[in-house]
Amino acid sequence: MSRICIPYATSEGQTARIAAHVADVVRAHGHEADVVDVKGPRLGGPDGYDGVVVGSSIHLGHHDKHVRDYVRQHRQTLERVPSAFFSVSLAAHGDEQEAERYVEAFEQETGWRPATVAMFSGALLYTQYGFLKRRLMKRIAGGKPGGLGTDVSRDYVYTEWDAVTRFTEDFLAGLAAGPAS
Ligand SMILES: Cc1cc2nc3c(=O)[nH]c(=O)nc-3n(C[C@H](O)[C@H](O)[C@H](O)COP(=O)(O)O)c2cc1C
């Protein structure tokens, strides 16, 4: 049995749901999973875990500052143990080049180049946004490729949960296989 740490940051909750899904898959495979909100109190590091899966959403073109700080602080551990990164954005739904640019910027800012990276589509949660955010997001969604929804009376969840499951299972398979010689 392996112990997997899943540090993440979220603003509207979608990355937390994805982190929880990753943890569910890890547990379903008989391993232990600790989901860690990096904005939370009493934050522990990833030391002592057999694997680490880091997640962050994108806002205004950047991954969460708390995740960037966490990764900079724990980079040596992330480079020592099997680790992976997942990025959550709307660009991942229809604008893959933009989603890749976000990840490239993250790698440059943190100096961490994870062996495994996934870009998951996030959500447009119009019913949860305040007035200004709803207007902003409707305008952005209307002008983006990928056919993003603009009906602000409802939410749109674009995350493909099967892809999250596959990403997690691939990570676990790599862990079981051990380091490549
Ligand atoms: C204010 C705001 C700004 C956003 N900016 C971007 C952006 O620059 N690029 C992008 O691809 N997605 C952007 N998004 C979409 C988020 O990445 C998406 O809603 C994601 O699901 C948020 O994850 P979270 O709920 O874990 O914070 C933005 C969303 C909001 C609400």
From TrEMBL:
Gene Ontology terms describing biological process: heme biosynthetic process
Superkingdom of the source species: Bacteria
One Pfam family per UniProt: Flavodoxin_5
Domain Flavodoxin: 6-141
Gene Ontology terms for molecular function: FMN binding; menaquinone-dependent protoporphyrinogen oxidase activity
PANTHER family: PROTOPORPHYRINOGEN IX DEHYDROGENASE [MENAQUINONE], PROTOPORPHYRINOGEN IX DEHYDROGENASE [QUINONE]
Name the record gives this protein: Flavodoxin domain-containing protein
Organism: Nocardioides panacis
